[in-house]
Amino acid sequence: MDEKTLEDGDRELVTRILGGDREAFTRLVEKYHPRVFRLVFGIVGDWQQSEDVCQEIFVSVYLKLSTFGFRSRFSTWMYRVSVNAALKARGRAANRREFNLDEAGSGPGRDDPSPRELEGAELLSKLLRPLPRHLRVVVLLKEKEGLTYKEIAAVIGCTSGAVEQRLHRAFTKLREIWKDRFGDLGLEKRRR
Amino acid sequence: MNCDTTESRLKAWIDGELDTRTGREVETHVAGCAGCADRVADYRRLGELIQRAEIAAVGGGQPGVIYEKARVARRDEEGVIRLLRRTAVTAAAVLVLAVTVAVAKSPARGGSPLARNAETTLENPNRVDDEALEAFLRNLELAVVDGGY
């Protein structure tokens, strides 16, 4: 299904939800929950908290839907609401010092379990842990959600140039940290 | 292009975000520079790794639960708005009455129809200036409508 058809589908769903159609809301949640969860988890790093934040996001979407107005693509708006909610939640967790991912410091420690043992979500958390949240967001939107720089810029409210800079900084940092441990991440080290 | 100018464009080049001319310049440099080629390979590996990390949410979002929460939240929100409206209308009505009383007690003569009405009413409670009464009721109605009551 192409982007335009997807957007048309969203428009219809939004219109129906605004008309009080519960089934349409259910479909919207089912459609967007996987991506929203993926994004939120990538930022927050805690499974249970991500589930809670996702619920908050969809409740918020339901309440704010009348203000959407189709001035941008619905998916862009959805990502924006999600990123804001996830960053806020992460801030709250950090304030409470309950955020597991940041407790280990800015990079992988030698006593950490080998990233080979980590799968899926754990691997992602482990890999992105060293990044500050504003860099983590652009990496996730690019690599996991497949957005273009222009689309990412629309989600986080900056220019495409700023997105490019952030991605460059993020990958430079990740490379510095993981370069010698690609083997640990399940990637073969290159022969030099 | 040299390494310094190319390095910051490498990720954008990998992502296909550069214009054709810049893209070609980067490509040419990378083809002849082992350091930058190495960096490109690492960036690609990292990208693949991030993309490969599958995350599947459990429960599919529980739309029913979310819908109920959203309905409760909307009801609460509407309750607060109703309360604020009522407060605003009450405040407006009190203000109108206060102004009316103040004007009525004012010694000034020949003022607004409302003032004349107030005076007339005070002097002769049985006689009411229709025009002033209408103006007063209009004011009150406007206040109520503005309050959205």
Briefly characterize the structure.
The complex is a heterodimer of chains A (192) and B (149). By secondary structure, chain A is mainly α.
Commentary on this structure:
The complex is a heterodimer of chains A (192) and B (149). Chain A has 192 residues and is an all-alpha fold. In chain A, 68% of the residues lie in helices and 0% in strands. Chain A is globular. By secondary structure, chain B is mostly helical. Chain B starts with a helix and ends with a helix. The mean pLDDT of chain B is 79. Classes of the chains: A mainly alpha (192), B mainly alpha (149).
Which ranges of chain B are low-confidence, i.e. pLDDT below 50, for 5 or more consecutive residues? none
Helix-strand topology string of chain A: HHHHHHHHH
How many strands in all of chain B? 0
Task: Give Rg of chain A in angstroms.
Answer: 18 Å
Give the class of chain A from helix and strand content and strand pairing: mainly alpha
Number of helix segments of chain A?
A: 9
Question: Keyphrases for this structure?
Answer:
heterodimer, A: 192 residues, mainly alpha, B: 149 residues, 0% strand
What order do the helices and strands come in, and which of them pair?
The complex is a heterodimer of chains A (192) and B (149).
Chain A: H1 3-18, H2 22-44, H3 47-64, H4 74-95, H5 100-103, H6 120-128, H7 133-144, H8 149-156, H9 160-178
Helix pairs in contact in A: 1-2, 2-3, 2-4, 2-7, 3-4, 4-8, 7-9, 8-9
Chain B: H1 3-7, H2 10-14, H3 20-31, H4 34-52, H5 63-105, H6 113-123, H7 130-146
Helix pairs in contact in B: 5-6, 5-7, 6-7
